[in-house]
Amino acid sequence: MSRSDEIGADEDILAALIEVSKTPEGRQGLSDVLADTLSLLPVSPSRLLLLRLRLLRNLLAGDEFNQLAFIESSGPSVVASSVLSFPSLAPDAARAALQALGNTALAGEFHRDAVWEALFPEVLGEFAGVRNTGVLDPLCMVLDTCCGGEGGRRRLDELCHEDLGLPILVQVVNTASQVEHKEEWLEWLLFKVCVEEEKFESLFNALCSTNDVECTDSGEYNAKHAFLLGTLSRCLNTHPKEVTVTDSFAHHVFDVHKHAAETVNFTHRGTSPLPTGRPAIDILGYTLQLLRDICAWESSSSETQGPVDSLLQTGLVKRLLKYLGELEPPSTIRKSMAGGQGDNHPALENAKVCPYIGYRRDLVAVIANCLHGRKKVQDEIRKLGGIMLLLQQCVIDEDNPYLREWGLLAIKNLLEENEENQKEVSELEMQEPVITPEIANIGLKVEIDKETGRPKLVNTSDT
């Protein structure tokens, strides 16, 4: 039998074993195969290596006996050295190897520590250099799993070490941003590193170096920065009750937002929602959405109110009102402005425009969430003369989907149990014209609720 025939026969046997190992009963019955498979890995040609890695992956899925035997046989080191022995790291082999190692790490602290010791930092760095989404997901699984449990804090500190682990995370973000990877293992890993363990600033800064030509685009920002913030925003938005936000992270996000606001050109109207493909604009938007969800998460928890209260002390609402006031009015109001001049009205000459579709809405959303149940914020907005500005957001805007809904929520939160604000709005109703000519022209007015005696914003076209 030729060597080629032998390999073909081995492939058939391995394919059959892989099929059997897909069930718990099959994995238990194949326990004796694990040691032989490990011993053959270092001498396996590429075709057989991939199949043997896939067999190991299956054997290690939830089988405690196999997982322990794998560790006792120095399995993590054998797998790593076998995969890396080839001149170039094949994505399929890297994926199967990481899946096997991830299944092992899930077994407990003893297993996580053994996997980490065998892989960190050199091997993990090699895997991180494979720009393939199929490799990235199990890599994030291994990293996230190893950074959990009893010894997770120590390993996480090592992963965030400037010289040892941080380059691995930079590679992960770089690859993920290029292949547009959006799986949950990546989200949980980055959220754990940046938010829960307060390493956001370190990673954010590490994504840009003087040798990175991308950093010349949009000032200091590049696509990796935007991707990181977009991933964190998505994680917080989809798992608000499963994550914890720290003061440090909230302040870093606000600082980045303020800097982005100074970088973005507000004279060019955006024509697309996030992501726009322009890093500074995407960062402006993702930081706003993070602030929105931080405040929403905060207002739903009576036990922990640190981050938003801390942000409010740094002038969050005052700054957002300033940004909102600098914008041109919403499209509905612009169209109704005196003389039918619309966008050519003299009052709009120096007004800023929304750099992406949804920017105004996101500003109003953050303010609305900050207002919820906070009399200090209600009073601050009144003292800053912001009531009229918020009333003007209760309209439909072509460039800001759901602006009216967020505007109405902001007004509801602004007036709730605040007699001073209710009085000011009711006094506006007594004035002629009602609120502003623009608001009156589009069919909005303030009415006094007959049952409660409180003012409410109504659409006259509905009556």
From TrEMBL:
Pfam family, one: Atx10homo_assoc
Gene Ontology biological process terms in this record: cell division
Name under which the protein is recorded: Ataxin-10 domain-containing protein
Superkingdom assignment: Eukaryota
InterPro entries per UniProt: ARM-like, ARM-type_fold, Ataxin-10/CTR86_families, Ataxin-10_domain
SUPFAM superfamilies documented for this protein: ARM repeat
Record keywords: Cell cycle, Cell division
Record domain Ataxin-10: where: 359-457
